[in-house]
Design brief:
Strand 2 and strand 3 form a beta hairpin. The protein is globular. The chain is built from one helix and three strands, in the order H-E-E-E. Helices cover 12% and strands 39% of the residues. The chain has a three-stranded antiparallel sheet.
């Protein structure tokens, strides 16, 4: 999972959100003032923010 990849440069898992009992899931990781939402959702990101 991407959470392990982001842990290598020091990001820490803060929590996750599920809208249903199963996948997809949105997991938040932080490092200092940086905060990322790692999402398994497809097609729901605003334009120009999806990496």
């Amino acid at each position: 999972m991407a959470v392990r990849w982001y842990a290598r440069p020091g990001f820490v898992r803060q929590g996750e959100k599920r809208f249903d009992p199963g996948p997809p899931v949105c997991t938040e990781v932080t490092r200092g003032h940086a905060r990322l939402c790692l999402s398994e959702h497809e097609g729901d990101a605003r334009p120009d923010i999806l990496v």
